[in-house]
Structure prediction request, 140 residues.
Amino acid sequence: MPYNKPVPKPSPLTQPFWDGAKEGKLMLPKCVACERVHWYPRHICPFCHSMNIEWIEGSGEGRIYNYAIQNRAFGGWAEEAPFVTAYIDLDEGDRMVTVLRGVDATDPTSIKIGSKVKVEFEQASDDIYIPFFRVVEDSS
Ligand SMILES: [Zn+2]
Prediction:
């Protein structure tokens, strides 16, 4: 099935992220000065304002911080509605917005805050793979 949602265009700032995604890796920007991971990619560390940023390979794992059911959407996303978007607390630090798959969007009570999730990637074009997360262990 062809990918019919908006496809991100990499910039020099984000290219390392997309290069990693193509290989199934969740690359994360990390400040060399304060050693904290931040999301999203920036030229300047949001914590200490250093411009010395490197990329690390993240574990691709985290936990659900919060989520929302998307009952309506536009374009290609309309075909997926209802679907779930979530904030994920990454194991390396900071928080990422994502689509959460493998959950029942018609039963919000089935989705548990704190559940462990892992990243997967969906091919959007020849070079762009879009990350999303899937629950691997419910929080109890
Ligand atoms: Zn820093």
